[in-house]
Request: fold
Amino acid sequence: MIILGFLLFFISIASENGLFILVAIVFFICGCVSIKGVFQLNPNEARVMMLFGSYRGTVKDNGILWVNPLYTQYAVSLKAMNE
Reply:
């Protein structure tokens, strides 16, 4: 969405179309907001998701994931402690 916003912005400037400029700005802002929700989880890690102080769940899947950008994420280690 960020790249599409940039491309549409430059195309709309060349064609002098005000509506496309507005759409390009909206695409760019939505892309910047949604990229905040991307995170990576490695093995033996988890993330606790909180939405305005309310527990919404725990993510334990490995890989690159996306969640609601409004969630606050807290890292949790799942490693076993042997003493």
In short: The chain has two domains: 2-35, 38-77. The chain has a mean pLDDT of 84.
